[in-house]
Amino acid sequence: MSKTIIVSNRLPVRIAKENDEYQLKVSEGGLATGLGSIYKQGDNVWIGWAGLDVDKGDEAEITNKLKQENLCPVYLDPEEIQNYYEGFSNETLWPIFHYMSTYAQYEQVYWDYYQSVNEKFKKVVLEIAEPGDIIWIHDYQLLLLPQMIREALPNTTIGFFQHIPFPSYELFRLIPWRAELLNGMLGSDLIGFHTYDDVRHFTSSATRVLPIQTTANVIHKDDRNITIDAFPMGIDAKKFNDLTHTEAVLQEKEVYNQIIGDTKIILSIDRLDYSKGIIQRLLAFDKVLSENPDYIEKISMHMIVVPSRDNIPQYRDLRDDIDKLVGNINSRYRTPSWHPIHYFYRSFPIETLSGLYSRADICLVTPMRDGMNLVSKEYIASKTDETGVLILSEMAGASKELIEAIIVNPNNLGEMYRAIVQALEMPEEEKISRMKNLRETVMKFDINHWVKIFMDQLAAVKNHEKSRRAK
Ligand code: GDG
Q1: How many other CB atoms are found less than 10 A from the CB of residue 86?
Q2: pTM of the full structure
């Protein structure tokens, strides 16, 4: 019997030592939920970094605990994390893939570790994988892994999905190791992205950098065919929908209502990242207050920024910039009984998020670049009363599907300003009509649908390849 192996940088679990014993907290994230239907079955398994620096002596205990959940750890030491993860993944690939090339570092040592850690993942995969297995690799930390596995197990079925954008060739070509990265990815049978633009950019880079042929969305390389396609990722929409009716969330909403009354809430939720357009969003909100004094005490922004990658200088700087700008706006407009911005630099339980999503009158999602952006979809799934307005950047993959949102260019401050005013003034019928359509999309094309169409296409691509070879 063949099995399915999921591989990603991180396991879908948080491991913490409590009272001298390691405890596992299984992630509630959408990807973990969607892939749960796969990795929890039979001999299937999910391989990834355990997410913490473990003493050698404790590895066996953790490995055993994880095994009971069909999880298999890759252990990384602090130098590997520093150079492969924070270095090459987050200081080289992340800025280039998000069109922030001036932030990119091209350090040989980062690249050396990126290769050796991809090798380390390969070894763990090969301890488990057998010919005939299906392997689904996730994201930009593991671009070299498909080809590494292909060399060891030439007939294995390998799918790869990239969660962040693939940039245009003019950006991608800047990376000194661009050919190696493409060759690594092309070890797959099927490569998926969130949008057709990503598919187009990838194919264009591959044909310019490598001596390969293409027919439509298929790349021919070394007598193999590799299909490149778009699979826009969905969320666990039912979970977000149903959460809004739970006692815990109803209580959260009640507390908001008591504190803020009928103030209109503009919601903003992101990880701390320069790709998310947080500064631009604040500037647009500032303009709304400065040009419309009538809104003073009638609207407020609730902004959650989840700490992320704060070892990297640009992220620390961004945090300082946000602190300053929020302080500046609050000090200029606040009144004794009202704050323009409620800013939280920490993460919250999903019930709090759900309460905010369902209470928020507007959700402002304005990334400079985003592979998909799940926050926009979670907001929609939480608007069970079918009101609320989504303002969404055209640079987010989600904007290709969520066309009834107010779509903005996050670099255009005037347009963002007008979008917020339009949302604040929108007639109720228009809000409902837009939200109805948005909800149909999000509830239908959910995470389970995404997993199914990727896995179905992977099987179809492989069967096609097998019959081509048999001829
Ligand atoms: C990458 C790509 C792509 C946020 N605050 C809290 C919290 N969150 C959760 C949200 C959402 C997730 O974090 C953020 O997902 P995004 O999609 O918005 O962004 P990235 O983390 O950058 O994800 C992105 C995604 O991969 C999937 O392919 O869409 O483009 O960059 O789910 O709910 N969760 C909790 N507390 C918080 O305070 N529990």
Answers
A1: 14
A2: 0.96
